[in-house]
Amino acid sequence: MEKNEILKELNKIFIKIFEDDSIVLNENTTTEDVAAWDSLNHIQMITAVEKHFKIRFELNDLLNFKNVGDLCEGIQKKLS
Fold this sequence. Notes:
By secondary structure, this protein is mainly alpha-helical. Helix content is 60%, strand content 0%. The protein has helices spanning 3-17, 39-53, 59-64, 68-79. The model has no long low-confidence stretch (mean pLDDT 96).
């Protein structure tokens, strides 16, 4: 799956989890760019991402994600 396709799917998930239709993700988006992105919503977002893409992240994967681009790359690796 191409990175831009993953980003589009992530954007839909973020809008739903963070209840904010104005979210427009890019690879540099971080927790500071999304007002409702707190620790609880982060867990819900990761769970939704894993369910949507039918993957499971290891704790080490999650600790290395610094932005949405890193998340996209992590998803891409799990899908390949």
